[in-house]
Amino acid sequence: MNHIVELGEFLRSCRGRLTPAEAGMPRTSRRRVPGLRREELAQPAGPSVDYYTRLEQRRSRSASPEILESPANRAAT
Questions:
Q1: How large a percentage of the chain has pLDDT more than 90?
Q2: Could you tell me the maximum CA-CA distance found in the chain, to the nearest angstrom?
Q3: What is the DSSP annotation of the chain?
Q4: Which of the pair, 3 or 10, is modelled with greater confidence?
Q5: Helices and strands of the chain, counted as H and E runs
Q6: Backbone angles phi, psi at 67, to 5 degrees
Q7: Which of the four pLDDT bands, split at 50, 70 and 90, describes residue 44?
Q8: Helices 38-45 & 49-56, crossing angle to 10 degrees?
Q9: Residue 5 has pLDDT above 70, yes or no
Q10: CATH number of 3-22+34-75
Q11: CA-to-CA distance for 13 and 35, rounded, in angstroms?
Q12: From CA 26, how far away is CA 76, in angstroms rounded?
C-alpha cells in the first residue's frame, strides 16, 4: 500500500473515532456517521475543507503539518 492510500485511510479513521465533545465542540443534532465531520476537523486545524477532502480521497500527494497535527490525529495516539 502506498503512502497516499495510507494517509487517506489514517485521516478517515482518526476523524471517525473522535467525538465532537472530545474535540471541544458543542453537542449538536443527530449525526449520520460517527465522529467529526470534515468541516469540524478542518476548521480548528486551519486548512480548507476542500484540501482535507482531497487528502482523504487520495487526490493530494502531501499533507501539511496542520493536518498531521490536527485534533483527530492526536486522538489516534
A1: 0
A2: 37
A3: --HHHHHHHHHHHHHHH--TTTTT----S--SSSS--HHHHHHHH-S-HHHHHHHHTT--S---HHHHTSHHHHHT-
A4: 10
A5: 5, 0
A6: -70, -45
A7: low
A8: 120
A9: yes
A10: 1.10.260.40
A11: 9
A12: 21
CA distance 70 to 43: 10
**Rounded average pLDDT over 26-52:** 76
Q: In whole angstroms, what is the distance from residue 15 CA to residue 45 CA?
A: 12
Mean pLDDT along residues 24-51: 76
Distance CA 34, CA 20 (A): 10
Tell me the mean pLDDT in the region 59-64.
75
For residues 67 and 11, the answer to whether their CB atoms sit within 8 Å is: yes
pTM over 0.70: no
